[in-house]
Amino acid sequence: MKHRSLVALGLFVLLNSAFLLPMSLQMAVTTGGGAHYVAPAGACNGATPCYAAIQAAVDAANTGDLIKVAAGSYTDMHMRKGISQTVYISKTVTLQGGYVPDDWLTPAPDVNPTLLDAQGKGRVIYITGQIEPTIAGLQITGGNAKGLGDYWGYDAGSGMYVDGATATISDNIIYSNTEAYVGVGIFLRNSDSTVTENDIHHNTTPPGGEGGGIYVNDSAATISGNNIWANKAVAGTGGGIHLSYDQSIITDNVLSKNVASKGGGLFLNESLAQLERNIIRYNHATGAGGGLHIEGTNPKVINTVITDNTADMRGAGINLEGTQAGFFHTTLSGNSGGDGSGVYVGFDIQVAATVTFTNTIIAGHSTGLIAEQDNSATLNGSLWHDNGNNWNGSGAISRQHDHFGDPIFAPDGYHLTEASNARDKGVESGITVDIDQDARPLGDGYDLGADEFNKATVPKDVLYLPLAIHTNRYTAYSPVSHSLHGKSKGRSHSLR
Q: Which helix (H) or strand (E) holds 27?
C-alpha cells in the first residue's frame, strides 16, 4: 500500500509539473514531428525549431513538413537562381499563417494577420517543380515581377507564381501586387492547383496585361469560393480571371468591380473550362464583355449570374467571338453601355460563333441579344423582360419556348420570388442543382435562370451592398446573410 501511495504521489507531482510548464513549450512537445515555427525576430516562445525568416524554415523543412508562421510582417527578400522573392518553394510543404507564439495549435488568420510583403522588390511567393505544397492563411502583397520574366519572356506572377506544381492555395488575402504582364495576383502554368476561399483584390497589370487577379495557362485548376474584386488588366484582358488553353473548373466565386479592355470579370481564350455557380457583377470593360468574354473553343457555363456589368463597346454582360459556348440556367440582367447589348455574338478572326442558351433570363438591357451576320444563337426556354429590343442583328437567332414577364427577383437581384414569371417555365436541361445547390427541378418544372425557387430557403434578408472594407478582410457585393449565395457555404463571403 505504501509503495502504491508513493507511485500515485509521483504521478501527481509529474502531471502538475507539466501544467506548470510554459504553455508554448507544452505545445511544442505535443505538436512535434515535422513542425517548424516562424515568428518575428525568432521569438517563438519556446517552440522549436524556430526561425525569424520564412525562407529559413522552408529550407530546413523536409517533404511533408508543416511550417507555422506567427502574425507579423515578413519583408525579407531572397535570391534563388537569379529570382528575387520573399519565399521560394521547391518542395512539398505546408505554409500556414495566423498563429501567435503563445498558441501554436490553432491558426486564426482573421485575428492574427500574417503579412508577406515584397515591398515592390520582387515576387512574394515563387513555387516550382512537381510538388504539392499548401499555402494558407497569409496576406500576400507588394509583389512586383517587373524584369523577372518566366512566361515566354513576359513578367508573370507578382503575388504568387506557380509553375508545374499542384498547389493548394486557400484562405489567403492576395492584394496590391503590380507589374506582372500576366497573372498579377496568381499565375498558374502547367498546374492543377486548387485556389479556394481567398480574397483577391486590387492587383493591377501594366498596360496590355492579362489576368489582374488570376491567370491560368495550360492547366486544369480548380478555382472555387473566392472573392475576386477590384483587379485591373489595364487595356488588357481578364480583369478578374484570364483562362487560356486550359481545362479548369471555376465554381462558386464572386467576381466584382474588376476592369479590363475585354472581359472585365472573366476572359476565356481557347479554354475548355467549366464555369458553374459564379456571380459576375459590377465589372467593366473599356472594350467588350463587361462581365464575361469568350473567344474560341466550347466552354460550358452553368447556373451563372451576370448582372449590372458595363462595357464601352459591346456585350455589356457577355461578349462571344468565334466560340461554341453553351450556357445553361443563366440570369442576365441590368448590363449596360456601348451598343446596349446584354449578349453580343460575333466573329473571332473571321471564325463565326455558334452559341446556345438553355433556360435563360434576359432582362433590363437596351437590346437583350445581338447576333452579327453569319453568326448564330439558339435559345430554348427564355424569359424576356424590360429590354428595349429583346433580340437584334442579322445573324441567325433561333428561339423556342419564349416567355415574357417580370422575373420579380428578391432584393439580391437574382434569387426568384414566389410570384416570379421564371418559375416552372424551363425545358429539360440535364442540370440537377441550382446556384445554391438546391435540387432541380422543384415544383412543376425547371425554373429559368440561375436560381430554382425553393420556398423553404428563399432569402428574405439578402441585400447586395456597395464595395466595403471591414477590419482586415475585404469583400464586395456579398450577402449580409453571411453566405455566398444566400445559404451557408464554407467560409463566409459576407462583409466581415
A: helix 23-31
The 3-state DSSP class for residue 268 equals strand
Residue 169 grid cell:
492555395
Apex CA 416: angle with CA 411 and CA 418, to 5°?
A: 105
Dump strand ranges (E) for 145-278: 150-151, 154-155, 160-163, 168-170, 173-175, 186-189, 194-196, 199-201, 214-217, 222-224, 227-229, 232-237, 241-244, 249-251, 254-256, 259-262, 266-269, 274-276
CA 16 – CA 19 distance, rounded (Å): 5
- Phi-psi region at 8: left, alpha or beta (left = phi > 0; alpha = psi -120 to 50): alpha
**Residue 261 corresponds to which amino acid?**
S
Ordered by start, the domain boundaries in the chain are 283-458
Q: How far is the C-alpha of 78 from the C-alpha of 87, rounded, in Å?
A: 7
Report the distance separating Cα 485 and Cα 363, nearest Å: 20
Q: Using the 8-state DSSP alphabet, how is residue 23 labeled?
A: H
**Largest Cα span, the chain:** 102
Alpha-carbon gap, residue 209 to 207, rounded angstroms? 6
| Phi and psi, residue 31, nearest 5° | -75, -45
pLDDT of 75 > 80? The answer is: yes
Alpha-carbon gap, residue 365 to 89, rounded angstroms: 48
Contact 120, 144 (CB under 8 A): yes
**DSSP string over 302-352:** EEEEEES-EESSB-SSEEEES---EEEEEEEES-BSTT-EEEEEE-BTTBP
In whole angstroms, what is the distance from residue 384 CA to residue 454 CA? 22
For 283-304, the DSSP string reads: -EEEEE-SSEEEESS--EEEEE
- Do the bridges between strand 123-128 and strand 222-224 make them parallel or antiparallel, or are there none, so unpaired? unpaired
Provide the pLDDT confidence category of residue 484 given band limits of 50, 70 and 90: very low
Which stretches within 327-443 are classed as H helix? Answer: none
Report pTM.
Answer: 0.88
Q: State the Cα–Cα distance between residues 50 and 68, nearest whole angstrom.
A: 10
pLDDT value at residue 458: 65
DSSP per position, 34-70: SEEEE-GGG--TT-SSEESSHHHHHHHPPTT-EEEEE
Query: 135: number of CA atoms within 13 Å, CB side?
Result: 34
Enclosing H/E stretch for 1: none
Beta bridge partners of 168: 134, 194
**Side chain identity, residue 154:** Y
Cβ-Cβ contacts under 8 Å for 320 (sequence gap 6 or more): 293, 294, 295, 343, 344, 345, 346, 353, 355
Cβ atoms of 366 and 387 within 8 Å: the answer is yes
Phi-psi region for residue 404, left (φ > 0), alpha (ψ -120 to 50) or beta?
beta
Q: What's the pLDDT tens digit per position in 178-195?
A: 999 999 999 999 999 999
